[in-house]
Predict the structure of SOS response associated peptidase (SRAP).
Amino acid sequence: MCFAGIWTNRTSVRKVKEGETTNDLYAFLTTEPNTEVFAIHPKAMPVILTTPEEVETWMTAPTEVALKLQRPLPDGVLRIVARGVKEDPAPTAA
């Protein structure tokens, strides 16, 4: 599985001290949430590509064909494996 995303190069001034630079910009595509994601984030979920064929379509098909992949996963495909506040273990002394 992977997220559907976009990439582009952009030349601009992001920091005055650095002047004009060319940077790689990335973003991932979102869609309405399915049932599992809605319980955590009711506004959106990432578009998840689940097969090699979907990845190939996303990477090579005309835009109107690729954008048909902008849909939530079917309900029941994702599984919540943890809930609550993440607790990292305390660092160990070296």
In short: The two ends are 37 Å apart (CA to CA). The chain has a mean pLDDT of 91. The longest strand covers residues 5-15. DSSP finds three helices and six strands in the chain.
